[in-house]
Amino acid sequence: MKGLAKYIRPEVGYMIITMIIKFVATYAELWIPSLMETMLDEKVPLGDIKQIYLYGALMLLAAGLGFGLNICANRMAAFSSSRITKNIRHDLFAKLQRLSARQMDELTIPSAESRLTSDTYNVNQMLTRLQRMGVRAPILLIGGIIMLVQMDIMMALVLIALLPIITIVILTVTRKSLPLYTQQQTVLDRVVRVVQENITGIRVVKALSKTDYERDRFGKVNKDLSDVSQKAGLITSVSGPVTMTVLRIGQTIAVLLGAYRVFSGDIQPGVIMAVLQYFIMIINATAGVTRIFVMWSRGEASAKRVSTVLELPEDMAVEEAEGEPDANAPHIEFRNVSFSYTGVGKNIENLSFRLEHGQTLGILGGTGSGKTTILNLLMRLYDTDEGQVLIDGRDIKTIPNEQLREKFGVVFQNDFVTEGTIAHNIRFFRDLPDEALQRAAVCAQAEFIQEKEGGMDAEVVVRGNNLSGGQKQRLLIARSLAADPEILVLDDASSALDYRTDANLRRALRENYRHTTTVLVTQRISSLQHADLILVLHDGCVIGAGDHEHLMAECEEYRSIAETQMGDGKEVS
User: Fold this and answer.
1) pLDDT tens by residue, 127-159
2) If you count DSSP H runs as helices and E runs as strands, how many of each does the chain have, helices first?
3) Domains of the chain (ranges plus CATH)?
4) pLDDT reported for residue 1
5) Is residue 421 within a helix (H) or strand (E), and if so which, with residue range?
């Protein structure tokens, strides 16, 4: 809870007022049995109708006051808890946006989703319950005992003797349930992951008839969640019945003792009725305290998970630049760069290359050779383990993230299309004029846009499912070009395009974006044969570097791929 204190602090004044209102409401309720006892034992025997009506009116007033103020306090509790949770959720979402790719890999996307949804909900419920029952239950419990002591010390001692038993039960249940609720949220992360994977790949699942397999896979993780939830539920379910049983036994003993004392003439019958009412209040208050501890266990576990993310340190801080960059430096330079995702084995080893403004780099290699890793390092999604990545002679670690990101237009290998219009997807929340969108769409060979009803205002459904693979890729390429980027990064961005469209796209890029430096990852020789520099990768190492003619002559693997794709390996436009 320490990590969330700053979110609660601005609402402390409002919460104190809520608790004061709750205190007044509960205090009014406490007086109802006492008023009833006075009316029955003192006013009724005298036959004073006015006094009876007066005390009846006072009881109604106390009940009405408690009812109205409780509703007011409950609404205020809901408002303050919602505001606190809204701010927590907002900052948590913003923090997730700022996490480095490495931190997100460790956290995992399903865990981030469950922390942003179910964990913040548990925190909200905890805060609400604490304001609603955190005042009412203790006051009813303590106030009820005080009233009992004032009415009859003997019957009050019966209840007081039982309190240590109740306290031990509640504390034991809380201590054992807290780690189980933490484990429950961890298992929930796995459930979210399985559901996410299944929904994302639902077409593949159906196409390969793996519905039964996916159902079994979900069934296993769902059973794990059910088991840990059941275990936590079994432990927390003990406190309520045990507490109620102990109190009911105490109530029975108190009534028997009270009857004996009435028979002996020590107390009046109205005292027994008032004592029963206070016992009921105390029973309900104890049940409320039990629910508070259960909710506290769940909320504290979730609060710790949320705080863990909010308190993550800045992983990729901007460093101070040492001196002025070289005015004659190349646009992009990798200097002896090595990198590993896991720290075991190198994904990129001792990589060096230079690109001037307007040049094109082509990257070719098999799966896992390090192609996308180069792009991740260039955009500083990860930091290098060794060596430097420089833009215009400046280490990218010294460039503020927002300034660095503005240099790039990017199409990732597994990119996404959002629900909305085509224009919305190309603009993508940037302040770009319509002319820039049209120019980018034309260059990206997205002529299908004009063929759709509404053109740029045509609707795109979730994940772009009403577009073909080639249409989505051209839309994404248009998005990357719309802001006239300094560096264009295309990660297998034309794999769904036919060869003619791909050739027209490359020609349009050369003509309209000649000052843009392009980094192109592809498996097509025809897409990169015009590149100024081509890197052929294998297991993170460069096994060939140069232009098309050089590699055809010197790199056997490149020549083999070229001959397989293009026959004699001659250039095509």
Assistant:
1) 998 888 888 888 888 888 888 777 777 777 777
2) 20, 12
3) 2-310 (1.20.1560.10), 329-407+489-573 (3.40.50.300), 415-484 (3.40.50.300)
4) 60
5) strand 420-421
Question: What whole-number distance in Å separates Cα of residue 83 and Cα of residue 120?
Answer: 12
- The letter for the amino acid at 387 is G
CA 343, CA 323: separation in Å to the nearest integer?
31
User: Can you say how many angstroms the Cα of residue 290 is from the centroid of all Cα atoms in its chain?
Assistant: 29
End-to-end CA distance of the chain: 63
Beta strands 332-339; 348-355: pairing state? antiparallel
The strand order across the sheet containing 348-355 reads 348-355, 332-339, 386-391, 394-395
Mean per-residue pLDDT, 490-504:
85
Q: Average pLDDT in the 410-439 region?
A: 87
Whole-prediction pTM? 0.75
Give pLDDT, residue 570.
Answer: 52
Tracing tokens 């000649």 back to the chain, one arrives at 514
Between CA 515 and CA 528 the distance in angstroms is: 17
Q: What is the pLDDT of residue 568?
A: 56
Select from 107, 10, 46, 57 the least CA-distant residue to 309: 107
For residue 411, the surrounding DSSP H or E stretch is strand 408-411
Q: Which amino acid is at 253?
A: I
Please tell me which of 82-91, 160-169, 563-572 the model is most confident about, judged by mean pLDDT: 82-91
Distance CA 121, CA 260 (A): 51
Angle at 84 between CA 82 and CA 89, to 5 degrees: 90
Cα 373 to the chain's mean position, in Å?
Answer: 26
Question: Average pLDDT, whole number, for the chain?
Answer: 85
Tokens representing 228 are 């840990």
Distances from the Cα of 157 to the Cα of 143, 168, 273, angstroms? 14, 18, 17
Query: Distances in Å between the alpha carbon of 379 and those of 108, 288, 376?
Result: 21, 54, 5
- Which one of 72-76, 296-300, 449-453 scores highest in mean pLDDT? 72-76
Strands 394-395 and 348-355 come out as: unpaired
CB 206 within 8 A of CB 147: no
Confidence grade of residue 571 (pLDDT, cut at 50, 70, 90)? very low
Report CA torsion sign: 226, 227, 228, 230: positive
Q: Return the beta strands (E) in 459-570 as ranges.
A: 459-460, 487-491, 517-521, 533-538, 541-546
Which neighbouring-strand residues pair with 533?
A: 361
Dihedral-angle region of residue 392 (phi above 0 means left; psi in -120 to 50 means alpha; beta otherwise): left
Residues pairing with 357 in the sheet: none
Whether residue 536 contacts residue 551, with contact meaning beta carbons closer than 8 Å, is answered with yes
Count of residues for the chain? 573
Q: What is the pLDDT of residues 270-327, one digit of tens each?
A: 777 777 777 778 777 777 777 787 788 888 888 888 999 998 888 888 888 777 777 7
Q: How far apart are CA 116 and CA 122, in angstroms?
A: 11
Alpha-carbon Rg of the chain, whole angstroms? 35
pLDDT in tens, 343-381: 777 889 899 999 999 999 999 988 888 888 999 999 998
Kindly give the pairing relationship between strand 487-491 and strand 408-411.
parallel
Query: What phi, psi does 353 have (nearest 5°)?
Result: -165, 165
